[in-house]
Amino acid sequence: MDIFGIPHQAFLGQLMLGLVNGSFYAMLSLGLAVIFGLLGIVNFAHGALYMIGAYVAWLGLEYLGINYWAALLLAPLVVGALGVVIERTLLKQLYKLDPLYGLLLTFGLALIAEGVFREQFGVSGQQYPVPELLQGATNLGFMVLPNYRAWVIGASLVVCLGTWFLIEKTPLGATLRAGTENPALVQAFGINVPVMVMLTYAAGAGLAALAGVLAAPVIQVTPLMGSNLIIVVFAVVVIGGMGSILGSILTGLMLGLVEGLTKVFYPEASSIVVFVIMAIVLVLRPAGLFGKEK
């Protein structure tokens, strides 16, 4: 059976690949949206943190025998700790300045991280094996679904929706939002706002690292993996609305699907379709699809 003149296996396979890419877009844009929405920082180092998370998993397996499941916990903790160092030593100096300074600083950090890893490991990718439990595929009748790709989609949705619920629907999330809007008032209630800000940045970094571990078995682990993805992720955040957490999640998944479908019908445009959509959205709705107009 064909779909729009294309064999259904090829069509559904490309749709699944788009959904997997959309899951990564959603997780990375979620971390960016959390950091920008709560701290006002345009974190250009997010792609580098994603790459470092993948390398923590690969190095842990290669030299310490740390398996995939342990890496899912270890990498966010390691990269989150790195985020604490970055926030405490560098970013906290910039909160009262124009956001452009934060963007330039994090862009510089991304270049440094990429350069260090290129020096140590070169630009050729490292293979990270699919965990034994998730190897193989499941025949759904209308298509064969690789088990690991199904896991990536499910895990990403759980993490993204869980983070959205935590920030938007819980007392902790209300405290975080209040702390960024009126830190002096929140501090008066005995809440340590600087520590809260530090942990927020660390959590955003940890989300990037988690996405890196999930991506490691799908793509090769390479120093360029973050820089190759971060521009698209920034486009996702802009389309969804800067600082809109739910907007970033939904837009990431949607654009992954659109990109996958574009590869089926017009492959030549698949690398630019996200940016075409961004341009259209910015003309029609400058605040983004889910952003609030000022």
Write down the overall mean pLDDT: 86
The name of the CATH architecture is: Orthogonal Bundle
> In percent, how helical is the residue content?
over 70%
- The name of the CATH topology is ABC transporter involved in vitamin B12 uptake, BtuC
- Describe the largest sheet: 2 strands, antiparallel
Coarse structural class: mainly alpha
Distance between the termini: 49 Å
Q: What is the CATH class?
A: Mainly Alpha
Query: If you compute it from the alpha carbons, what radius of gyration comes out, rounded to the nearest whole angstrom?
Result: 19 Å
Give the overall shape, derived from the CA principal axes. Answer: globular
Low-confidence stretches: none
Give a count of the beta strands, DSSP E runs of length 2 or more: 4
How many structural domains in the coordinates?
Answer: 1
| Estimated share of beta-strand residues | under 5%
Series of secondary-structure elements, N-terminal to C-terminal: EEHHHHEEHHHHHHH
Strand order of the largest sheet: 1-2
- What's the total helix number? 11
